Amino acid sequence: MTRTLIACVLWGSLWAYVLLAVERFSLRRLAIPAALFFLAQGACLLFMPYGALRQFCYYTCRQVFCLFMALYSLSTLRRAPTSQERQWLGRHRWLMWVLLVEVVLVCLEDALVILVLPPAKELGITPYLSERNFCENAMVVVFAFFTGRIAWRELSFRMRSQPQAHRQPSPAPTSLPTNPATPTGTTTGAGTAEGAQAAGDATFSAHVDELMPRFGADHGLTPREEEVLALVLAGRTNQQIADTLVVSVGTVKTHVYNIVHKCDVGNRAELKTLFWAP
User: Fold this and answer.
1) Is the distance from CB of 238 to CB of 249 less than 8 angstroms?
2) What is each CA distance from 100 to 95, 104, 252, in whole angstroms?
3) Cis preceding-peptide flag for 119 (omega within 30 of 0)
4) What would the pLDDT profile of 198-251 be if each residue is shown by its tens digit?
5) Which residue among 87, 126, 167, 256 has its CA within the 20 to 30 Å range from the CA of 243?
6) Are 258 and 249 a contacting pair, CB within 8 Å?
7) Are 76 and 89 contacting, i.e. CB atoms less than 8 angstroms apart?
């Protein structure tokens, strides 16, 4: 039972990471699948007779949980309400597919070793333990490398440049305010409907604020250009940006031109794609 509790903590931690990554974390979402996982493994130990089949079912519970995590992540990605959110969640799409492939490989290895082959000792493979699945270990190494890569990028960036808050005009651009000339809850037209909806979304604003310091540093953007870019990402027109920042339309066009040139893209659509790219 101790091993079951340890597995519940480890897989529950992985599930918590998945929920945070797709921004769906809540105590209820965390607790219910983790509790079901614990109960499933406990049921295998309590109600199945000792033997290879019980051992296989016991360890397969882990892979079922991993499969659920991967499918939940992909489903959340597909159901994202805006293209910006889909691009944000899709940064780690390849990791979701790696998890799916690893689950299949782990199940195949368990079936081969536990159900088909004789015990490891009879084969003379003394270092092999049934509770140590090689494919499962490979999956852990992949996740460890991925986590280390994120930590290294974050620490390297902070050693180069301390992130700073954007300059706050009135109103603050990084909060992606609603156009003062437009009543709250309305849009200025079909072309800006999606941008207005995203601008009112606190999650969208948080994503922009999180990515902007590194993006600006990588492409040599000035603080003012970062402010303009934040509004471009929200779908603002040049006139709306000028009204928000209290500058002329010509000044906005100059900033947008400089941003596009520094980022080596051809237009605003390509600029958005570059910003949200993994």
Assistant:
1) yes
2) 9, 7, 46
3) no
4) 434 566 777 788 788 878 888 899 999 999 999 998 888 999 999 999 999 999
5) 87
6) no
7) yes
Residue 143 CA to residue 156 CA, distance in Å, equals: 20
Tokens of 234: 């929200």
* The pTM of the whole model exceeds 0.85: no
- CA-CA distance, 267 to 265, in Å (whole number)? 6
HSE of 66, CA atoms in CB hemisphere, 13 A: 24
3-state secondary structure of 201: coil
Give the count of beta carbons closer than 10 Å to the beta carbon of residue 23: 14
> Could you give the CA distance from residue 174 to residue 245 in angstroms, rounded to a whole number?
11
Q: Where are the alpha helices (DSSP H) in 221-267?
A: 223-233, 238-245, 249-262
Instruction: State the Cα angle at 167 between 163 and 172, rounded to 5°.
Output: 115
Pair 195, 268: CB distance under 8 Å: no
